[in-house]
Specification:
Blueprint: E1 5-9, E2 20-25, E3 28-34, H1 41-45, E4 60-62, H2 68-71, H3 74-79, E5 86-88, H4 90-117, H5 131-138, E6 141-143, E7 150-152, E8 155-161, E9 169-175, E10 178-182, E11 205-209, H6 223-234, E12 238-242, H7 248-262, E13 270-273, H8 275-290, H9 297-301, E14 312-314, H10 318-323, E15 331-335, H11 344-352, E16 359-362, H12 371-376, E17 381-384, E18 387-390, E19 394-397, H13 407-415, E20 423-427, H14 431-445, E21 449-450, E22 457-459
Parallel strand pairs: 3-4, 4-5, 5-6, 10-11, 11-20, 12-15, 12-16, 13-14, 13-15, 16-19, 20-21
Antiparallel strand pairs: 1-2, 1-22, 2-3, 7-8, 8-9, 9-10, 17-18
Helix pairs in contact: 4-5, 4-8
Length: 460
């Protein structure tokens, strides 16, 4: 162990959001992930507070992938003065601009709304970052192919496939004083579109996510998706699916295609209503067309569009989106955001949630404090646009489409390392799942597993 190499946990401790990890080696400093906090108000307030020990003169940033809780703080870091390189995989470099531009737009909208309502403590209300900050951050992206060693101010960075979303990576950092690797968000070996994660590297310290650290996913089956959707369509209802724009929307479209072409579901119009989802979908189509090795071989070989269920409708304009508040039924609407925290899906919820014939289907993890989590927990009303709206629609959660590895998958990935780390740090999970996974790592692998505290610094 060297006093010159340290790791500080600046996010994703005790929660699944806000991933930030600061590596220091002498005078060199590298930030792995630069994510926004999402969820309840107390967590979101951290986005505005100074981050302990993080200053904009860090040498570089490395992004594991393009989800907002891993890359969304980057424009704020740029606004505060960061101007160094941002390394990420080539496909992440395609997707991050979509995510950051959308996030900046929402930040600006929220500030304008607060100004109209007079609901901010600031006069005038300001966004956390704006479109200009996002564009400056995008200009800093430096694509780094998998398996290539990249020198960064006395350290070496290498990325490998994580199989979570297109471009998702594990991050390995080597320095004179030791080595550390980060799982980022790990995907499932049964992902229908993406190749599975590469093996874990042999390092001194390993930082692993634990989103589903206390549970096993049911075997990947489309029955759990078909049953509630079929029930809603049979009663003439609308199926509203709040879905993450990146990865979840393409995977849902693949599942609906399989169900509708096989006859398990009737062929009905399927609307995708999210500018970010439409942009991300085109990137996924590009990856399939180019035969990217991140895409499963059977998908690359297919002669047809894997994302068209039969009657795919793309809502590009605000007016097209507005018409979906009273859509022709039966139909399916896929709209962002995935936890119903903002975006077009909130308008659809306002109009569709009060009607019992409709279905709200939640196909992913829902962070505490979000509307999605409230729905899963049985909320009878939701507050939207300043008023409470009754929830009479059927609500169903489906874990089968999760893009995260479950507890067994995480342990299998850890076992794939050719030698164990000195310490395994368990992050990016709520306290219960993180504690359960840490205990299993200790008992089943015999490793030292630790749940780090927020802002804690450890030597490597």
């Amino acid at each position: 162990m060297s006093d010159g190499l340290s790791l500080r946990f600046l996010g994703a401790t005790g929660t699944v959001t806000g991933s930030k990890f600061l590596i220091s080696a002498g005078h060199s400093r590298l930030l792995v992930d630069s994510g926004l906090y999402q969820g309840d108000r107390e967590l979101r307030r951290r986005n505005w507070a100074p981050v302990p020990g993080l200053t904009p003169d860090v040498d570089a940033v490395v992004l594991s992938h393009a989800h907002l809780d891993h890359c969304g703080y980057l424009p704020r870091l740029v606004r505060d003065g960061f101007s160094g390189p941002v390394y990420c995989s080539p496909w992440t470099a395609h997707v991050v601009p979509i995510v950051l531009r959308d996030a900046a737009h929402l930040q600006e909208e929220d500030a304008q709304y607060a100004a109209r309502r007079g609901s901010s403590r600031h006069d005038p209300p300001l966004p956390l970052f704006d479109t200009g900050d996002a564009e400056k951050a995008i200009a800093l992206l430096r694509p780094l192919p998998y398996g290539r060693n990249q020198p960064v101010s006395g350290m070496t960075v290498r990325l490998q496939r994580a199989g979570h979303i297109l471009g998702s990576s594990t991050v390995e950092v080597q320095a004179a004083g030791g080595s550390v690797a980060f799982s980022g968000d790990l995907g499932r070996c049964t992902h229908p579109l993406l190749a599975p994660p590469d093996p874990a590297p042999a390092v001194d310290a390993l930082v692993v996510e634990s989103t589903y650290g206390d549970r096993r996913h049911p075997p990947r089956s489309l029955h759990a998706l078909a049953e509630p959707i079929g029930r809603a369509l049979a009663r003439g209802g609308v199926v509203l699916i709040p879905a993450f724009a990146v990865d979840r929307t393409p995977v849902l479209l693949m599942a609906l295609r399989e169900l509708m072409t096989s006859g398990a579901l009737p062929v009905v119009p399927v609307y995708v209503d999210s500018p970010m989802a439409l942009a991300a979908l085109e990137v996924y189509r590009e990856a399939v067309r180019e035969g990217s090795l991140e895409i499963r071989a059977e998908v690359r070989r297919a002669a047809t569009d894997p994302f068209d269920p039969g009657e795919l409708r793309l809502a590009h304009t605000v007016e097209e989106s507005r018409r979906l508040n009273s859509p022709p039924a039966p139909c399916v609407i896929i709209s962002a955001s995935g936890m119903a925290t903002g975006g077009r899906v909130v308008h659809h919820l306002e109009h569709l949630a009060p009607h019992p014939r409709n279905l709200i289907l939640l196909p992913g993890f829902q962070v505490a404090g979000t509307r999605g989590r409230a729905l899963l927990d049985g909320a009878s009303t939701l507050k939207m646009f300043g008023r409470y709206v009754p929830v009479r629609a059927e609500v169903a959660g489906v874990d089968e489409l999760s893009a995260h590895a479950d507890a067994d998958g995480l342990l299998a990935w850890l076992r794939s390392a050719v030698s164990p780390p000195d310490t395994c740090y368990v992050v990016h999970g709520e306290p219960g799942p993180s504690s359960v996974l840490a205990a299993r790592i200790g008992t089943e692998l015999g490793w030292s597993a630790v749940l780090p505290r927020y802002a804690e610094r450890v030597l490597l």
